[in-house]
Amino acid sequence: MTLPVEGQSIQIHSYKHDGLIHRVWQETTVLKGTRNIVIGGNDRTIVTESDGRTWLTREPAICYFHAEHWFNIICMLREDGVYYYCNLSSPFVYDEQALKYIDYDLDIKVYPDMSYTLLDEDEYEEHRRQMGYPNVIDQILKRNVDKLIRWIKQRRGPFAPDFIDVWYSRYLFQKRYRQKE
């Protein structure tokens, strides 16, 4: 299996269960790339939606992907603190073209005070019926919602107090290093 290399710029591709592309992030800098974990950083990157519309991210973000967990976490650094957007998704795969995953609609938004909201339950149910999510996927995703909530409450992984400081510093270092090249 090919692994993304620290300092490398990669794309992130989000798909839906039916195999169609959902969203593409044009450029993310790899801060850590192992068989199980990819941590990346981006700021003001172009995002292309499935219908071709594009938009620019507004703030720096640290992205956490895991090859065994059915979620990924985007940590957005805003003026009033760090906000987290957690996508319930398939574990990632990386194939030299991009880091790829299937987005399963359910999301958890976490606020700087670590309060959180489960989002898009209606969209999840609609797509589950339309695309025929198997029961096993439904059970895995519900278990992973519970796991994510435990991580939030226990301040584990990207929710740990020093996670953002460490990885945002590495992102800024990589950004300065690449500008010198």
TrEMBL record:
<dbReference type="GO" id="GO:0017111">
    <property type="term" value="F:ribonucleoside triphosphate phosphatase activity"/>
</dbReference>
<feature type="binding site">
    <location>
        <position position="120"/>
    </location>
    <ligand>
        <name>Mg(2+) 2</name>
    </ligand>
</feature>
<feature type="binding site">
    <location>
        <position position="105"/>
    </location>
    <ligand>
        <name>Mg(2+) 2</name>
    </ligand>
</feature>
<feature type="binding site">
    <location>
        <position position="123"/>
    </location>
    <ligand>
        <name>Mg(2+) 2</name>
    </ligand>
</feature>
<feature type="domain" description="DUF402">
    <location>
        <begin position="18"/>
        <end position="156"/>
    </location>
</feature>
<dbReference type="InterPro" id="IPR016882">
    <property type="entry name" value="SA1684"/>
</dbReference>
<feature type="binding site">
    <location>
        <position position="107"/>
    </location>
    <ligand>
        <name>Mg(2+) 1</name>
    </ligand>
</feature>
<dbReference type="GO" id="GO:0017110">
    <property type="term" value="F:nucleoside diphosphate phosphatase activity"/>
</dbReference>
<comment type="similarity">
    <text>Belongs to the Ntdp family.</text>
</comment>
<dbReference type="InterPro" id="IPR035930">
    <property type="entry name" value="FomD-like_sf"/>
</dbReference>
<feature type="binding site">
    <location>
        <position position="103"/>
    </location>
    <ligand>
        <name>Mg(2+) 1</name>
    </ligand>
</feature>
<comment type="function">
    <text>Has nucleoside phosphatase activity towards nucleoside triphosphates and nucleoside diphosphates.</text>
</comment>
<dbReference type="GO" id="GO:0000287">
    <property type="term" value="F:magnesium ion binding"/>
</dbReference>
<protein>
    <recommendedName>
        <fullName>Nucleoside triphosphate/diphosphate phosphatase</fullName>
        <ecNumber>3.6.1.15</ecNumber>
        <ecNumber>3.6.1.6</ecNumber>
    </recommendedName>
</protein>
<feature type="active site" description="Proton donor">
    <location>
        <position position="23"/>
    </location>
</feature>
<feature type="binding site">
    <location>
        <position position="87"/>
    </location>
    <ligand>
        <name>Mg(2+) 1</name>
    </ligand>
</feature>
<dbReference type="InterPro" id="IPR050212">
    <property type="entry name" value="Ntdp-like"/>
</dbReference>
<keyword id="KW-0479">Metal-binding</keyword>
<dbReference type="InterPro" id="IPR007295">
    <property type="entry name" value="DUF402"/>
</dbReference>
<keyword id="KW-0460">Magnesium</keyword>
<feature type="binding site">
    <location>
        <position position="107"/>
    </location>
    <ligand>
        <name>Mg(2+) 2</name>
    </ligand>
</feature>
<dbReference type="Pfam" id="PF04167">
    <property type="entry name" value="DUF402"/>
</dbReference>
<keyword id="KW-0378">Hydrolase</keyword>
